[in-house]
Amino acid sequence: MLEKGTPARAILGSLAFFLVAPGLVAGLVPFALVGWTLQPPLLGLPGERLVGVAAVGVGLACLLDCFARFALEGRGTPGPVEQTEVLVASGLYRFVRNPMYVCVVTIVLGQALLLGQASLLAYAGALLAAFHLFVRLYEEPTLGRRFGGSYETYCAHVRRWWPRPTPWRESE
What we know:
The protein is an all-alpha fold. Helices cover 64% and strands 0% of the residues. It has helices at 7-34, 48-72, 99-115, 118-157.
């Protein structure tokens, strides 16, 4: 059995959580909603589908980076069962406090553009609302209790949803 706090356990736990949470929310649910069927472009703009592909690709790459940071730097997972030992405030977390949620919404919006599916736009909006409520009502109070002043300082400098133009440095 892998001991708590080991890199191997954190990596395996993060992989499992990745498959369950974003895999479900940005993979299985969109498939269930639209069957990933191609419809006429939503906006009828040239390159719209390419923008969708780019959004899915960038969202997925950034999401994988965030998961890796939780496992390797935080020595835990994004899931509540095996939380990180330290506050992760590097990479995309230097620009926005909730990059994983932003990435998932970006992936779903990309799917909407790629597939021409308006129902995925509505789903992305519902996800954003649900993520906002979860962050405000559960995550922020929990992280505030766990990490105290360091989390308060981080929140004072890094916005919840809208990225900073420059990366935050703890010395600010």
